[in-house]
């Protein structure tokens, strides 16, 4: 070989080294995922560094070893066609598990390589051994994934193959990255194969280089990612202060709006308001050689970019980037939407829990945190059964709802909270749209609603009882009137001074004086007086019953509170149930009424209902006190009620105080005294509705107030205020 040929060969290697470096930078612009570009960048830098100074066997050993490492291939080889029939491949370099192994030769028939040689890139993420079941070698090596790239000579004739084999299945993005890298180095490998075959065919070699350059130039100009090459500019102390544009591709101009006339200019000239951190970041890359990948916003261009920056040579850096402004806007909109939905979910008064079909928690709103005391961060991802065992029982219903694709609702599910029964409606909504499986559990506390419903039922019962009482009162009133009337007639006919009586007595041979003496001696007149008095009392009781049970009018009427209270006291004293448990005659009644009290606009029956309830409760409390005193051999204090009615003409309010000297109440009971169904009486004695209904009548129906003062052992005082006129009239 002559000197000229040697010189030509040396120049060709230098050109190839330079072209490989350029091709390395341009490959980085190929559209791929961020981690693919970073991996490709490292591969190109390392492999190209070795390729620039090596040829022949060393080159091939180096490139298969580096490629195997980058793409994580368990087997990597470069092979050439061993004969003209193109049926056999002989490996030039073979790497097994990261180490160079002896070369082999194999037949292409029934192998995946037969689909590659002279044809196209062929890849399998998994299952290649099953697809090519006749390829015994693949089965023996346990190969799952396969990437093969054909090698062509300068005339586009089949030359060989570059193959990576993987024991584990590959992900799609990893396979694509391997394809890109293999395709990139296939040109260099093909060139080296040709060069090793013959160094004398310089024209074909030049043609191959030219063809490769065209391909890379095509890639450089048509890639959708922006690419730019820069030279860093430092001050005298070596600190980066600016950088110069050396080269840009068309995509760079499209993404930034900067035209090719910026080449040769510095960034401070092109973008006067450029942020300092750009120069700091790129300066570090150019001076240290450390690659970097990041997302950042540039205010002068009002855009977001995803950037990969690396240093191809000292004091230089290249950038591959994409405009992610739209993505950032979408992310911000999505973040706003998520916050909006989260606020809606958290503002709901219901407990909302999202779960997977397995019962793993995906959503936990603030009401769930409040109900359980468990923060959302702690609940996220946990099994519902492990976190809240009592709710874990809903898992079978969750699966059934998902399977049947329809909601499920359980109403008034009872649980014990703080020693008291609580009721909840539990609804399970299956999530079956858009491929998402799971369910949302909605838990609503309906304890108050249940109590109101029971109160309404009790109210209906009371209305029914009132109606029955009214009916009975009417039925009793008729014979009672006959009794009183006939007693009056008998009294008249026994009058000794009545002329008709004297005449009839004489006709019968009897004197009225004798008849009168007989009745007096036999105390018949006193008996008749007792019957008359009893009849009148019975008539008054019936009148009170009718008044109390009469349905309220649609409008309030003026009433004297003093008379209403006295009527209620009289009604209570004749209450059989009350007399049976505690004789009202043993209770001292102390009245303190304002003589100037005007008539108050109110519903008389409702106000009497309140008074009667307070009297019954007070009598019961005083009875309990008396029993305790007798049991403990203590002096028995006489029971008494104090009724005060005062008037505030300035505020137009009448104040009623009903005070007893019963057992009194603890502070914790006072706080709940007006709650529906709350009672301190033993089971079966009280419903817990009396004071709740009374409070409702005074505050809601009459626009007044109702309060209570009490201490244990010191009795209880109820304070009621009623406006002279109903509020709103």
Keywords:
729 residues, alpha+beta, Beta-Lactamase, 5 domains, seven-stranded antiparallel beta sheet, five-stranded antiparallel beta sheet, 23% strand
CATH topology of the largest domain: Beta-Lactamase
* Shape field: elongated
| Rg of Cα set | 52 Å
Q: What portion of residues belong to β-strands?
A: 15-25%
Kindly report how far apart the N and C termini lie. Answer: 123 Å
Give the fraction of residues assigned to helices: 40-55%
Largest sheet: 7 strands, antiparallel
Structural class: alpha+beta
pLDDT averaged over residues: 80
What is the CATH top level name of the largest domain?
Answer: Alpha Beta
Overall CATH architecture of the largest domain: 2-Layer Sandwich
The oligomeric state is: single chain
Describe the protein:
By secondary structure, this protein is an alpha+beta fold. It folds into five domains: 3-222, GAF domain (Beta-Lactamase), CATH 3.30.450; 226-328, Beta-Lactamase; 348-445, 2-Layer Sandwich (Beta-Lactamase); 452-549; 557-723, Histidine kinase-like ATPase, C-terminal domain (Heat Shock Protein 90), CATH 3.30.565.10. The chain is 48% helix and 23% strand. The protein has 25 helices and 24 strands. Strands 1, 2, 3, 4, 5, 6 and 7 form a seven-stranded antiparallel beta sheet that branches. A five-stranded antiparallel beta sheet has the order 9-8-12-11-10. It has a five-stranded antiparallel beta sheet with strand order 14-13-17-16-15.
């Amino acid at each position: 070989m002559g000197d000229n040929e040697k010189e030509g060969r040396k120049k060709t290697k230098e050109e190839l080294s330079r072209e490989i470096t350029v091709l390395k930078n341009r490959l980085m612009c190929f559209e791929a995922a961020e981690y693919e570009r970073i991996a490709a960048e490292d591969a190109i830098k390392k492999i190209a560094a070795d390729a620039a100074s090596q040829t022949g066997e060393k080159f091939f050993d180096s490139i298969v070893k580096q490629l195997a490492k980058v793409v994580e291939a368990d087997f990597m080889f470069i092979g050439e066609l061993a004969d003209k029939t193109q049926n056999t491949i002989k490996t030039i370099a073979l790497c097994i598990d990261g180490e160079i192994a002896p070369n082999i030769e194999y037949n292409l028939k029934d192998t995946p390589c037969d689909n590659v040689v002279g044809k196209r890139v062929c890849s399998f993420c998994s299952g290649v051994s099953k697809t090519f079941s006749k390829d015994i070698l693949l089965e023996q090596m346990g190969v799952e994934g396969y990437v093969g790239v054909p090698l062509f000579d300068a005339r586009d004739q089949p030359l060989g193959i570059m193959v990576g084999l993987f024991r584990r299945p590959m992900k799609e993005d990893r396979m694509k990255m391997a394809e890109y890298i293999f395709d990139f180095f296939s040109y260099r490998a093909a060139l080296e194969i040709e060069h090793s075959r013959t160094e004398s065919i310089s024209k074909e070699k030049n043609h191959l280089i030219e063809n490769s350059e065209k391909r890379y130039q095509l890639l450089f100009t048509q890639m959708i990612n922006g690419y730019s090459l820069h030279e860093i500019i430092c001050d005298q102390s070596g600190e980066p202060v600016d950088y110069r544009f050396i080269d840009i591709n068309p995509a760079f101009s499209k993404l930034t709006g900067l035209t090719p006339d910026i080449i040769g200019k510095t960034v401070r000239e092109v973008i006067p308001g450029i942020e300092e951190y750009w120069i700091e970041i790129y300066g570090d890359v150019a001076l240290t050689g450390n690659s970097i990948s990041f997302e950042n916003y540039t205010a002068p261009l009002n855009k977001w970019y995803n950037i990969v920056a690396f240093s191809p040579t000292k004091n230089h850096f290249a950038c591959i980037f994409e405009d992610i402004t739209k993505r950032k806007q979408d992310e911000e909109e999505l973040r706003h939407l998520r916050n909006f939905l989260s606020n809606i979910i958290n503002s709901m008064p219901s407990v909302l829990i999202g779960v997977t079909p397995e019962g793993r928690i995906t959503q936990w709103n603030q009401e769930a945190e409040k109900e359980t005391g468990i923060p959302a961060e702690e609940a996220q991802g946990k099994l519902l059964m492990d976190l809240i065992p009592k709710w874990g029982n809903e898992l079978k219903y969750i699966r059934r709802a998902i399977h049947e694709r329809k909601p499920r609702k359980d109403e008034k599910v009872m649980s014990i909270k703080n020693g008291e029964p609580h009721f909840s409606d539990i609804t399970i909504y299956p999530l079956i749209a858009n491929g998402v499986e799971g369910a949302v559990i909605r838990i609503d506390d309906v304890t108050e609603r249940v109590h109101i419903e029971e109160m309404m039922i009790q109210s209906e019962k009371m209305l029914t009882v009132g109606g029955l009482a009214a009916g009975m009162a009417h039925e009793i009133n008729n014979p009672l009137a006959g009794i009183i009337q006939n007693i009056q007639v008998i009294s008249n006919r026994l009058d000794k001074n009545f002329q008709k009586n004297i005449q009839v007595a004489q006709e019968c041979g009897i004197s009225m004086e004798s008849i009168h003496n007989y009745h007096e001696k036999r105390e018949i007149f006193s008996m008749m007086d007792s019957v008359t008095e009893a009849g009148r009392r019975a008539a008054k009781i019936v009148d009170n019953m009718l008044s109390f049970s009469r349905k309220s009018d649609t409008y309030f009427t003026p009433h004297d509170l003093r008379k209403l209270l006295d009527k209620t006291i009289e009604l209570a004293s004749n209450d059989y149930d009350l007399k049976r448990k505690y004789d009202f005659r043993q209770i001292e009644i102390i009245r303190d009424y304002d003589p100037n009290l005007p008539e108050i606009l109110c519903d008389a029956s409702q106000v009497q209902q309140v008074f009667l309830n307070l009297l019954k409760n007070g009598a019961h409390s005083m009875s309990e006190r008396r029993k305790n005193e007798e049991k403990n051999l203590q002096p028995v204090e006489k029971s008494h009620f104090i009724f005060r009615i005062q008037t505030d003409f300035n505020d137009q309010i009448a104040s009623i105080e009903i005070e007893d000297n019963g057992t009194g109440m603890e502070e914790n009971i006072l706080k709940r005294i007006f709650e529906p169904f709350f009672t301190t009486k033993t089971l079966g004695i009280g419903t817990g509705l009396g004071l709740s209904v009374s409070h409702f009548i005074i505050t809601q129906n009459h626009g007044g107030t109702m309060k209570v003062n009490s201490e244990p052992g010191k009795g209880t005082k109820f304070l009621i205020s009623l406006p002279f006129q109903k509020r709103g009239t």
